[in-house]
């Protein structure tokens, strides 16, 4: 198998909700980020200009309150990058490149902001 | 049906141009031509997260392959464009066929500068530009003990950091008397020398490799201009890149340090644009014309060219930004610091969280932030809006930079 080959991996469902309220359920491989799940399945509304380096704040999401305390706490870099998102920061704002999908997060709901750039 | 927009180059800039055309509702055919056999991927992780194994190869692609079918982007991967026939508006491919265009976008990128010394052809002397290069270096590192990095710029130092993190013995050789000399103030060069030294990376400044010696065709050691011999199983060379402008030049388009374009990213031919690493453009954040090698420039020029093709041209005036991750230190840069005449720091360098503000004739032109992302993000806004910030304000940590008054209308 080439180095680009996809190994079979366990997945967990992540639900991406557009600003208009349309929801897309995607089975994201455990270990991938919520941002990667969106990019690989063409979810509009996550730009991820820097490719997941926590450099651009264009993969901003609002995490459903019921999941907030199940996420690993954010690191200082993410916290600071969130101070300059284009759509307003709220208490449930996160950068989706920094949220790793786990089995425990199955059913995670993230709402996409009006704009990223 | 009209002839397609043809994009030569499948890197970040070419990808963004194609994706933005479709996002903006452009309906005519779009063709991408790229020499690499892969569909578009990110280069920044190659020296960092990919090299250390934190990011899988399958996660470096900008979009899954289905994206190109879904968006009717005809991706010719593994095809080399060899000639632009401007009179007939078509591109000739190495395979012999021709692709007609209505508008041509040159996103041909850059190639590595090679080491012009004896022994540079030996097995184990590596360059990093493509994912195949990265896979090769990553594989070689598995069995390597000693790594010599030639070049103390971003790529060299990121590779040094990755190799050291993988437990290798690493030496960095830099010709200049300080690290990242082209990009940052001496104070930051010295900060980074300490970061690397603190991780047991040996930094050799003001020295050049003279010869690479080998055994059975494989690199074994590097002889430096200071007379020392450095053992090396892998010699990783990061001494800069050269813009790929030959296609444009051979078609009679103006080139200098890149393919010359105007503020709308257009070449002298109204049907041909150039974007990304290969494009030498007027930049309002520089004193003149520049060529920038960055994700930001590739993405924003890709967007600009798509808007222009869609009939909504605007001057390219995006704020330049860059970053580099080495060990646990993140440097974020905004603006272009070339030609600065004064610097001030905000925060204490001892704390490994500080920013350097660069001024030219009293005007803020750039900010380099070490582990201070908020300064960086605010800096993007300050530079974009032209807010006047004095050196005293910049160094005053009691002043909240987010609460500065807006720029005066005269700016």
Radius of gyration of chain B from the CA trace? 22 Å
Mind telling me the CATH superfamily name of chain A?
Beta-grasp domain
The major beta sheet of chain B can be summarized as: 5 strands, parallel
Strand order of the largest sheet of chain A: 2-1-5-3-4
What is the helix content of chain B? 10-25%
Domain count of chain B: the total is 3
What coarse outline of chain B follows from CA principal-axis ratios?
globular
CATH architectural grouping of chain A:
Roll
Quick one: CATH superfamily of the largest domain in chain B? FAD/NAD(P)-binding domain
**Can you tell me the CATH topology of the largest domain in chain B?**
FAD/NAD(P)-binding domain
CATH topology of chain A: Ubiquitin-like (UB roll)
Structural class of chain B: alpha/beta
Which structural traits does this protein have?
heterodimer; A: 117 residues; Ubiquitin-like (UB roll); five-stranded mixed β-sheet; 5 strands; B: 411 residues; alpha/beta; FAD/NAD(P)-binding domain; Enolase-like, domain 1; 3 domains; five-stranded parallel β-sheet; 9 helices; 27 strands; 30% strand; globular
Overview of the molecule:
- The complex is a heterodimer of chains A (117) and B (411).
- By secondary structure, chain A is an alpha+beta fold.
- Chain A has a single domain (11-111), classed as Beta-grasp domain (Ubiquitin-like (UB roll)).
- Chain A is built from three helices and five strands; from the N terminus they run ββαβααββ.
- Chain A has a five-stranded mixed beta sheet with strand order 2-1-5-3-4.
- Chain B has 411 residues and is of the alpha/beta class.
- Chain B folds into three domains: 5-111 and 241-309, 3-Layer(bba) Sandwich (FAD/NAD(P)-binding domain), CATH 3.50.50.60; 125-237, FAD/NAD(P)-binding domain; 328-403, Enolase-like, domain 1.
- Chain B has nine helices and 27 strands.
- Chain B has helices at 12-23, 66-70, 131-143, 154-165, 186-198, 246-250, 295-309, 373-385, 391-395, and strands at 5-8, 30-34, 73-77, 81-85, 90-93, 98-100, 103-106, 110-112, 125-127, 146-150, 169-174, 202-205, 209-215, 218-224, 229-231, 234-237, 241-243, 255-256, 258-260, 272-274, 279-282, 289-290, 321-326, 329-335, 342-346, 354-360, 363-370.
- In chain B, the strands form seven sheets. A five-stranded parallel beta sheet of chain B has the order 3-2-1-7-20.
- In chain B, a hairpin with a 2-residue loop joins strand 26 and strand 27 (363-370).
- Chain B is globular and about 60 Å long.
- The chains are: A alpha+beta (117), B alpha/beta (411).
- Chain A binds chain B through residues 3-6, 32, 36, 39-42, 49-55, 57, 77, 80-81, 83-84, and chain B through 38, 42, 44-45, 49, 55, 57-60, 62-64, 66-67, 70, 135, 295-296, 299, 323, 325, 330, 332, 371-374, 377-378, 380-381, 402.
């Amino acid at each position: 198998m080439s180095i680009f080959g996809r190994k079979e991996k366990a997945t967990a469902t992540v639900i991406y909700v557009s600003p208009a309220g349309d929801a897309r359920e995607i089975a994201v491989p455990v270990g991938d980020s919520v941002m990667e799940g969106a990019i690989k399945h063409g979810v509009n509304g996550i730009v991820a200009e820097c490719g997941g380096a926590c450099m651009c704040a264009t993969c901003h999401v609002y995490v459903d309150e019921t999941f907030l305390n199940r996420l690993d706490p954010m690191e200082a870099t993410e916290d600071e990058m969130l101070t300059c998102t284009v759509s307003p920061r709220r208490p449930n704002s996160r950068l989706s490149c920094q949220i790793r999908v786990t089995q425990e997060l199955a059913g995670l709901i993230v709402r996409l902001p009006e704009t990223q750039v | 049906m009209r002839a397609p927009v043809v994009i030569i180059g499948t890197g970040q800039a070419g990808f963004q141009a194609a994706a933005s055309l479709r996002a903006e509702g452009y309906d005519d055919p779009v063709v991408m031509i790229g020499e690499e056999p892969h569909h578009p991927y990110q280069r920044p992780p190659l020296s960092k997260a990919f090299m250390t194994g934190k990011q899988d190869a399958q996660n470096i692609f900008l979009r899954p392959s289905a994206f190109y079918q879904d968006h009717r982007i005809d991706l010719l991967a593994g095809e080399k464009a060899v000639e632009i026939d401007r009179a007939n508006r078509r591109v000739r491919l190495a395979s012999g066929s021709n692709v007609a265009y209505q508008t041509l976008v040159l996103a041909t990128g850059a190639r590595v500068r090679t080491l012009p010394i004896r022994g540079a052809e030996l097995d184990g002397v590596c360059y990093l530009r493509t994912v195949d290069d990265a896979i090769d270096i990553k594989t070689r590192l598995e069995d390597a003990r000693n790594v010599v990095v030639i070049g103390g710029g971003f790529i060299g130092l990121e590779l040094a950091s990755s190799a050291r993190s993988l437990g290798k013995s690493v030496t960095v050789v830099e010709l200049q008397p300080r690290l990242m000399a082209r990009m940052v103030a001496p104070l930051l060069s010295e900060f980074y020398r300490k970061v690397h030294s603190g991780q047991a990376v040996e930094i050799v400044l003001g020295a050049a490799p003279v010869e690479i010696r080998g055994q059975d065709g494989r690199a074994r050691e590097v002889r430096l201009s200071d007379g020392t011999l450095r053992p090396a199983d892998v010699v990783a060379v990061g001494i800069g890149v050269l813009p790929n402008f030959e296609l444009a030049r051979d078609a009679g388009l103006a080139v200098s340090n890149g393919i010359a374009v105007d503020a709308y990213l257009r070449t002298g031919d109204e049907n041909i644009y150039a974007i990304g690493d290969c494009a030498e453009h007027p930049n309002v954040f520089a004193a003149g014309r520049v060529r920038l090698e960055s994700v930001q420039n590739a993405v924003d020029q890709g967007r600009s060219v798509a808007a222009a093709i869609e009939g909504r041209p605007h001057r390219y005036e995006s704020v330049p930004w860059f970053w580099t991750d080495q060990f646990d230190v993140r440097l974020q840069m905004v603006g272009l610091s070339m030609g600065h005449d004064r610097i001030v720091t905000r925060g204490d360098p001892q704390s490994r969280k500080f920013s350097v503000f660069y001024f030219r004739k009293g005007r803020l032109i750039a900010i380099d932030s070490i582990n201070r992302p908020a300064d960086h993000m605010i800096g993007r806004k300050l530079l974009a809006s032209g807010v006047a910030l004095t050196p005293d304000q910049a160094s005053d940590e009691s002043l909240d930079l987010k609460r500065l008054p807006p720029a005066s209308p005269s700016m």
